[in-house]
Amino acid sequence: MGAYVIYSLKVNGAAPAAIISTNKADITTASGCAISNIPLVDTLETGSFYAMRSGMEVKVDADSKIVCVTNRTF
Fold first, then answer.
1. pTM of the predicted model, to two decimals?
2. For residue 54, what are the CA distances in angstroms to 63, 69, 72?
3. What distances in angstroms separate CA 48 from CA 3, 26, 28, 34, one per listed residue?
4. What single DSSP character describes residue 18?
5. Which end of the chain has fewer CB atoms < 10 Å from its terminal CB, N or C?
6. Lowest-pLDDT range of 11-15, 46-50, 68-72
């Protein structure tokens, strides 16, 4: 997915609120998030990532690389 595809999603109101990855983000994803002002957290510990489920609310602090589940009910 190109950086401008992520930007296009943002412009059209279809972008994710944040992107979370257990691996190091590639330059295309990082660039897309940067130009679209989408928080990006990469190299998140795998255990934390697998604890998340669809429908959960999470708070993302990309500057500190912190992802917290705020609502566990769905």
1. 0.78
2. 24, 12, 10
3. 26, 21, 24, 24
4. -
5. C
6. 46-50
